[in-house]
Amino acid sequence: MQLFQTQQIKLYNTLSGQKENFKPINEGHVGMYVCGPTVYSNVHLGNVRTFMSFDMVFRYLKHLGYKVRFVRNITDAGHLENDADAGEDRIAKKARLEEIEPMEVVQRYTVDFHNILNKFNFLPPSIEPTATGHIIEQIEIIKTILEKGLAYEVNGSVYFDVLKYNQTKQYGILSKRNVEDLIHNTRELDGQSDKKNPQDFALWKKAEPQHIMRWPSPWSDGFPGWHLECTAMSTKYLGEHFDIHGGGMDLKFPHHECEIAQGEACNDASPVNYWMHANMLIMNGKKMAKSTGNYILPNEIFSGDNPHITKAYAPSVARFFMLQAHYRSILDFTNNGLLASEKGFYRLMDAINIMDELKASESSSINISDWKQSCYDAMNDDFNSPILIANLFEGVKFINQIKEGQASLTQDDLEAFKTTMNAFVFDILGLVNVTKVETDTDKLSGAVELLIKIRQEARANKDFALSDKIRDELAEVGIQLQDGKEGTTFSTN
Ligand SMILES: [Zn+2]
């Protein structure tokens, strides 16, 4: 018996605008695709929040016993400035400005992305495919859409024919727009474009002579349109029809709308059952933007090196802060918010540290199975992490009451309680008990202090050979001793 047989998830489906019972296509298996980053700059904190929401979803589905194939791509070509069909490729532009190869840009920021996600204790996705690794698949999809008569070629570029598609299908079904409004609200083509209508979007773009990132195709040397890669990679790894597609709210239109259109055009069926969108992260009540200075990089949170925060925060504190908001709510990133979360986080960890020492009793004064189910209920209700966290603090209260002798649990209840606390705090929310790491640091300090004392005695005995040996060998393992007026201190690197 797996947990998913007793725990029914309800999730908010952007497509229907309602919370729906989650039922995977194949029982016990979940296919989930999340649009990954365009790797042309350091990962934005707002994107980290989006990916963290789906990391939590991934973790919870796994906890319930589902076999999850989670695909999160890397966009390393085809994403033009302003998300439009004209303008420079974001990666190529960065490469030109820094005078390096586009693939050096891709490498640098893919590594940065992974480093940041590792610090936040993300689970790696099951597959992390790249757009440039799937050019052939993208060309095949374009051929199919052309054969179906829903795309046209002009001067070596291929465009999706939105108006023709809309005669039999519904373009705008996800973002609740209709094509008539889109026509009214889109400015006229300036004569530079090859498109029949401004609503059409590129499937393939012929490369200008100076464009470095180019591949041969039946139509021209060029590159795929941005929306196409996700259709190609999700189809390849999850099939024409899969369970969950996620991404940031900003991708709903046009990116995800175009993915639906491409999938429908190829297979006459909607590619995805459940569309999930994570809301924005703002800072101090305003949009985060480098240009206005209202901006912070994830690494600056860990170092404290940013004027908008007063101190450094552990990655788990920042993670806890973000999960204290529901993924569909706007989250306002503020120093006061972080300070409050830090207090809460350490209160939770302190309680967990004493949980292991709690003693069982003859009887239970707390109904643990009710409390445990309320933790599941929170997550089953569209992954409501703030309500879950409120339940975990209820657990903190139990720990303190049991410790003070004001409440009791039988051996079985105590075991169930500990298992549930650990599962939700560490496996599902993905927090790391940094206070335990500090305990290790305390042990290290104790050992080094002892060596400093021995070294002082050696010096007092004029045994300079031993004193130097202690200093040099500590330096070799990365511990530097500094002799000062106040005595000897040490630092590590
Ligand atoms: Zn995508």
From TrEMBL:
Binds 1 zinc ion per subunit. It is an enzyme of class 6 (ligase). Keywords: Aminoacyl-tRNA synthetase, ATP-binding, Cytoplasm, Ligase, Metal-binding, Nucleotide-binding, Protein biosynthesis, Zinc. It catalyses: tRNA(Cys) + L-cysteine + ATP = L-cysteinyl-tRNA(Cys) + AMP + diphosphate. Its EC number is 6.1.1.16. Zn(2+) binds at C35, C230, H255, E259. SMART domains: DALR_2. Gene3D superfamilies: Cysteine-tRNA ligase, C-terminal anti-codon recognition domain, HUPs. ATP binds at K290. It holds the Pfam family tRNA-synt_1e. A motif ('HIGH' region) lies at residues 37-47. Belongs to the class-I aminoacyl-tRNA synthetase family. HAMAP family: Cys_tRNA_synth (MF_00041). Monomer. This is Cysteine--tRNA ligase. It comes from Geojedonia litorea.
